[in-house]
Specification:
alpha+beta, Lysozyme-like, Lysozyme, 3 domains, 5-stranded antiparallel β-sheet, globular, disordered N terminus
C-alpha cells in the first residue's frame, strides 16, 4: 500500500525489526552438524540439590521444566541472559543501559539471580553458567532463599503446596499477576508430570503430583498488584496479566503524515486470518520506546523474554503496520517477541513460548483463526507484495524458533504419523524435530563464520538427491540465478517445520517436492522421517495452461473499485506454477479485498473503506512463504 511520500520512506527503512543481511555465495555443505558434547549430568542432580537446599524435588523439577524444559543449552545464554536448566539470569550492561528510572533499579535487581546463586552457594559464576549440576544447585538455593524471605518453612519434606510464593518469586516478574501466572504454570506442569530427554541425552522423569497450592502467598510478594485483563483495556487471557501501552495514532510533520497504525472495525472491515510471530531484534524496553514513536511502525503486542510479560499496543480491530505486506496487515495480528533471530548462540525462553501460546490460543479462539502453520505464521512466511519487494522481506523469528514445541503448547501438534505412504502426488508435512536437527548455518555473529551448532526448525532442499548437490534456487532472493546458501538470513532453500508440500518424486531415502516452481530434494529415511503424508487439497494449473502466476496479495479486480478509490494493481510475483506441478491448499476461503485507509481521523471516516472483489483467490503453500493463486487459473483436487 502506498502512503504519503514522507512516511513511505520511513516505512521502507524501518517497517520491520530485521533487515536482510548480505547473503553469502558459498559456505560449507548444508548437512547436519554434530552438537558439542557437554558433560552429561544424571537426573539425580535434582534430587541431590533438593535435599541439600531443602526444596521439594517436585517443585525444583517443575520450576526447571517451566524455565528450560531441563535443557542446559550448552552454557549459552537465553535471549534474556539466562543460563542453564534453572535459567539463572545475569543482566548485561547493555540491557541495564536500555532501562530507565525505576525500571532500571527494579529490573536490574531482579534479573541478577546468577549473582544471588553465587553468593548463596559459594560457587563461581562461570560454573553456574556452564556446569549443569552447579546451575541446578544455584536454582535450588535461590528458591530456598525466596521461601525463607516469605517466612515459610524450608525442607525437602515440606509440602509443595507451601511453595507457591517462592515459585512466583522465581518468575522475576514485574507484578503479582505475572508472577502468579508463572507459578500457575509450574503447578500445572507438576500436576501433569513430564518426561523428556535433555540436550545432553539425559532422561529426566517427573511423576505427576496432585497438589492444591496456597495461592494466597502471592500477596506477600513485594511487587505491584498488576493489571488484570478483565478490568482493563487489554485483550488478553486473564492469566497473562497484560498491560496497555498504546501505540500513538497521531499526526506529525507536514499535513497528511500520521502514524503508526490505522483505525478500522475488523472483522467488519476485513476478517482476521493470521497471527504473525515476530522477534524484536532488540531488548524489550528499546522496542517499547519504538512502538510509542508515531514516525515508526506498530504491532499489536510485545512480549518480554525473561517472564513472558506482555504489553498490548493496538486493538485487534485496528490495523497495525508490522508485516511489510498491506494485505497481510489488513488480516492479521502481530506479536513481537523479545529475541534475536541471527544470534545462534542464544535461545528463546520457555516462559516466552508458554505465554505466547496462551495469548495465541486466546486470540485464535476469539477471532476464529485455525491453529495451524498456515494461519499462525512466522514473519518469514509473509510474501512480498510485488516482485521488487520479495528480496527485502523479513525472516524472523528465524531458524531457531521451535515451531514443533510451540504448536505442542498450542494444543495443536504438528502432524507426524506414518499413516499414509509418502509417494508422488501426496501432501507431506515437514517435521524434522528440533533438538537433534542441527543444520549448518553461517554468519550469525560475523560474516564468514559458522553459527554455533544448535537445534534448527528446517531441512535444506537440494537440486538433486545428493548430499553434495547445490541448494535450490530462489529467484526472488537471488535474481542473478545463483544457488541458495547457508546464510542465516537466506530462507530460500528451507522447508520449515509444519510447512506442507506436494511430493514430485521419491528415490530411496530422498523425497522431491514442488518448491517455487521447481523440485527440491531432502532426505527423509523411512526409519527416521522428516516428512509425513496427510490428506488434503492441492491446486494444479487448469488444463491447457503451460503455467499460472502466483501473487503476494489477494487484491480485487479493477471493476470492484469505486471511482474515488485508485485501483491497486494486481501484479504477479516472479514465480509461477508449471503444468504438471501441484501445491497444497492452505485456505480456500480468504477475502479478496483492499482496505483503503490513507487519511487521519479520530474515528474511521467515510474514506476508510473495504473494497471487496469478486475475483476469488486461494492461499497455498509455496516455497518458504505462503502465496495466493487466482481460482480461475487452477483446479482444486484431493491429493493422491
Amino acid at each position: 500500500m502506498l502512503r504519503r511520500p514522507k512516511i513511505l520512506a520511513a516505512l521502507a527503512a524501518v517497517a520491520l525489526p530485521i533487515t536482510l543481511t548480505g547473503v553469502s555465495s558459498g559456505g560449507p555443505p548444508a548437512t547436519a552438524a554434530p552438537l558439542p558434547a557437554p558433560a552429561a549430568v544424571a537426573a539425580t542432580a535434582y534430587s541431590a540439590a533438593a535435599a541439600k537446599y531443602g526444596v521439594p524435588e517436585s517443585v525444583l523439577l517443575a520450576v526447571s521444566y517451566a524455565e528450560s524444559r531441563w535443557d542446559d543449552h550448552g552454557g549459552a545464554p537465553s535471549t534474556s541472559g539466562g543460563y542453564g536448566p534453572m535459567h539463572l539470569t545475569a543482566l548485561g550492561a547493555s540491557e541495564v543501559a536500555d532501562l530507565s528510572g525505576k525500571q532500571k533499579v527494579a529490573t536490574a535487581d531482579s534479573l541478577q539471580t546468577l549473582d544471588k546463586a553465587a553468593k548463596l552457594t559459594g560457587l563461581d559464576a562461570s560454573a553456574l553458567r556452564t556446569d549443569t549440576t552447579a546451575n541446578i544447585n544455584g536454582g535450588a538455593a535461590v528458591l530456598a532463599s525466596y521461601q525463607k524471605s516469605l517466612g515459610l518453612p524450608v525442607g525437602a519434606e515440606t509440602s509443595p503446596a507451601e511453595w507457591y510464593g517462592a515459585v512466583a518469586s522465581y518468575a522475576e516478574a514485574g507484578d503479582k499477576v505475572a508472577a502468579a501466572g508463572f507459578a500457575d504454570d509450574v503447578y500445572s506442569i507438576m500436576a501433569r508430570g513430564a518426561a523428556r530427554t535433555t540436550n545432553t541425552g539425559q532422561q529426566v522423569v517427573m511423576p505427576a503430583v496432585a497438589v492444591t497450592p496456597d495461592k494466597a502467598q502471592v500477596s506477600k510478594l513485594s511487587l505491584p498488584a498488576g493489571v488484570k485483563p478483565s478490568t482493563s483495556n487489554v485483550e488478553c487471557p486473564p492469566s497473562l496479566g497484560c498491560e496497555w501501552l498504546p501505540a500513538p495514532y497521531s499526526e506529525f510533520g507536514t499535513a497528511g503524515d500520521y502514524g503508526n497504525h490505522d483505525l478500522a472495525n475488523r472483522p467488519k472491515t476485513g476478517k482476521i486470518d493470521y497471527i504473525v510471530i515476530h522477534d524484536t531484534e532488540g531488548t524489550w524496553q528499546g522496542v517499547l520506546n519504538l512502538v510509542q514513536d508515531p514516525t515508526y511502525v506498530s504491532w499489536q503486542y510485545t512480549m518480554r523474554s525473561s517472564d513472558g510479560h506482555t504489553w498490548q499496543h493496538v486493538k485487534a480491530n485496528d490495523v497495525a503496520w508490522h508485516a511489510g505486506n498491506w494485505y497481510v496487515n489488513m488480516h492479521s495480528i502481530g506479536i513481537e517477541h523479545e529475541g534475536f533471530a541471527p544470534q545462534g548462540a542464544t535461545w528463546f525462553t520457555e516462559s516466552l513460548y508458554r505465554n505466547s501460546a496462551k495469548l495465541v490460543k486466546y486470540l485464535a479462539a476469539k477471532n476464529d483463526i485455525p491453529l495451524d502453520r498456515a494461519h499462525i505464521i512466522g514473519h518469514d512466511q509473509v510474501p512480498g507484495t510485488v516482485p521488487s519487494t520479495v528480496r527485502g522481506m523479513h525472516w524472523d523469528p528465524g531458524p531457531y524458533w521451535d515451531w514443533e514445541h510451540y504448536f505442542d503448547l498450542l494444543g495443536a501438534p504438528i502432524y507426524g504419523h506414518n499413516v499414509f505412504p509418502v509417494k508422488a502426488g501426496s501432501i507431506v508435512t515437514i517435521k524434522p524435530g528440533f533438538q537433534g536437527n542441527v543444520q549448518v548455518v553461517n554468519n550469525c555473529d560475523a560474516p564468514g563464520t559458522p553459527c554455533t551448532p544448535q537445534g534448527t526448525n528446517f531441512v535444506y532442499l537440494r537440486q538433486a538427491p545428493d548430499d553434495n548437490a547445490p541448494l535450490v534456487k530462489d529467484i526472488g532472493l537471488h535474481p542473478d540465478g545463483s544457488d541458495g546458501t547457508t546464510d542465516v538470513s537466506d530462507m530460500g532453500s528451507r522447508a520449515a517445520a509444519g510447512s506442507q508440500y506436494v511430493v514430485a518424486q521419491r528415490q530411496g531415502d530422498w523425497v522431491a517436492v514442488w518448491y517455487l516452481g521447481a523440485m527440491g530434494w531432502f532426505k527423509s529415511p523411512a526409519s527416521t522421517p522428516d516428512a509425513f503424508a496427510k490428506p488434503g487439497l492441492v491446486v494444479k494449473p487448469k488444463a491447457g495452461k503451460a503455467s499460472v502466476p502466483v501473487y503476494g496479495r489477494a487484491y480485487p479486480e479493477q471493476a470492484a473499485y469505486p471511482a474515488n478509490i485508485p485501483y491497486q494493481t494486481v501484479t504477479p510475483l516472479q514465480y509461477s506454477i508449471g503444468a504438471g506441478q501441484a501445491y497444497p491448499v492452505s485456505d480456500l476461503n480468504i477475502e479478496t479485498d483492499y482496505y483503503r485507509a490513507v487519511t487521519f481521523a479520530e474515528q474511521p471516516p467515510a474514506d476508510h473503506v473495504q473494497v471487496i472483489g469478486k475475483d476469488r483467490y486461494y492461499q497455498i503453500w509455496f516455497g518458504h512463504r505462503m502465496a495466493y493463486v487466482r481460482a480461475a487459473d487452477v483446479d482444486v483436487s484431493p491429493a493422491i
